[in-house]
């Protein structure tokens, strides 16, 4: 087929560009991913480049798979073999496995990749070992600090300790690294860090890969971080053929170190790069595009982009303000059900997007209640399940006996009389003898009571450990003797009697067993590839990878996970201040700009219809709080919106709110953006009328605040917290409290029943 067919002029120019550097900068839906895909096909078919010499980086494994099969459609089967096509993480893992035998890396090629849970559990252990107060230094925040450092290529040796906090981070960082090495493990950030170090510091390794990759291509370039950028630069250093596509306005991974200024860096590092702009959008209607543009135009320091569509005006965006979050979910169900039952739409046409994972629960419940199937995107649903993690831990132990995170997870699963105390004795014995726990287990398994550890651990504990050690040894033997992955899997299930353990006759038990069965099915798919690849793929699974294409059902996903995807109809839920934009962004301009980009990404996923939803009142964590409408709603011209908010709610608003003027004197949390007041939403905002099932007991107007910043308080379900801010609004004292258990919360003092402690 003509590889330039169905491309516009700029698109063809990019696809057929000569060697050198190319930067395609263009808005959503303008065909950037299409161009990248065609470019790979073009390189192979028209420019005679061998697939082996091509490296293409996508943002998710799913995107890589789709790109691969698209190229095969274009070129015919088997024309792509040898190409390196995958995410940064998977490409790094591949390089590191090849190079780990060389002695240049602190782990061997059997290394395991620890997932987010494993990483935090190591931090937790380190905190305990170092006697650090985990109330003041939360494990997740220490982990984030370490991850941040790694993304900026700052190792333990270079980590600054300029203040107390940094000193703590440094001490934890140091031990965390030790623990990873002792486990022959790497975390996600290590994959990049070590690859970049290897390329930067070992000229012959760099040369090998740089020579190999004659062409380097990258999708979603705006979301690369510093380390990724460095890696690309090294890999392209021999041939200097690098082709990147991206859109600064869609950069939404700042929290993972992404830096859209890499686009500027690219232009500076490659002054001869050709820059191609794409201006036609093929995805969305004009209304969708106009609304999206109105939102993103408010971000400063950006290059305005022209984007037109030939798809026509299309229908207005629908706005719905629900009295509470259940009504918000019910609205979604109704809208979808109506269209599906009339045959106007299919399940897969819809996507429901939210800012935080926690919001999905109620939406899921609504789908379940209505008996409607849905696809929940997110590794949590499957890979986060206890039973799935158990089995993976057994497999990881077989693969890498040094993996103590997995060992501690399953050493007593199902219960085999190995208590926490025994485990700790085992670990300290191992440390003392400069051995791995796995070695001691193996020794006990082999020698029984003749083992020199037997008495140290006590007979009863030793017997239990010896049994476990024998079991592990048998599994390893099975694998070493050429046993297949499925046979290992089944052997583990039989030996541990896992099914009896998990399937206890309850609904939940059945559900759990089904998950194990699903994992087993996956293991069968990998029988050709073996345990290494199976584990690697499990470790690098990303949210989008959990979308099952075959299911014809609405997709539920976070805005972050929606990147690069498209749907006929998109619901964006939770358009409340504090949620979207997220409360974390209210006091930081850069964060606020990123929230706006996130909203922009959401809107631009839609081909035909966008629904913007919010809820006047929300009880995310079991206590209710009023929400103001998201400031982003104000940016969309009214002419593009059609409101479907219930009448009752509007009437109440009128009575509870005596005029829009007062709005201006009200302040939102943090620093509200100074914007021309546009009234229809503003008038809605801040209504404190409530029509739900739990009437509010209003107390007499408060004038003085009862709570003061820095006071310690305690809440019935959230435990202790610190008051950060307190102010009087509408006669209510409104508090911002940071709870150790759930983080920042906004509360109405008269309802929250806080105790001062
Ligand atoms: P995003 O920024 O959201 O990742 P993108 O720029 O990568 O978007 P694509 O996903 O490549 O855009 O394209 C958007 C849609 O437009 C796809 O369905 C694609 O098939 C279609 N498309 C792109 N170019 C053309 C074209 N020249 N003719 C017809 N359809 C096109
Ligand atoms: Mg794309």
Automatic annotation (TrEMBL):
UvrD-like helicase ATP-binding domain sequence ranges: 5-285
Domain of life: Bacteria
CDD domains: DEXQc_UvrD, SF1_C_UvrD
Entries under Pfam families matching the protein: PcrA_UvrD_tudor, UvrD-helicase, UvrD_C
Catalytic activities: ATP + H2O = ADP + phosphate + H(+); Couples ATP hydrolysis with the unwinding of duplex DNA by translocating in the 3'-5' direction
UvrD-like helicase C-terminal domain: residues covered: 286-564
One MF annotation (Gene Ontology) recorded for this entry: 3'-5' DNA helicase activity
UniProt-annotated binding residues for ATP: 26-33
Residue numbers spanned by region Disordered: 643-695
Comp. bias regions, Low complexity: 643-656
GO cellular component: cytosol; DNA helicase complex
ATP-binding among keywords: yes
Biological processes, Gene Ontology terms: recombinational repair
UniProt entry keywords in alphabetical sequence: ATP-binding, DNA-binding, Helicase, Hydrolase, Isomerase, Nucleotide-binding
Keyword RNA-binding: no
Family: Belongs to the helicase family. UvrD subfamily.
Matches recorded under PANTHER family: ATP-DEPENDENT DNA HELICASE SRS2, UVRD / RECB / PCRA DNA HELICASE FAMILY MEMBER
Name of the protein in its database record: DNA 3'-5' helicase
Organism: Ornatilinea apprima
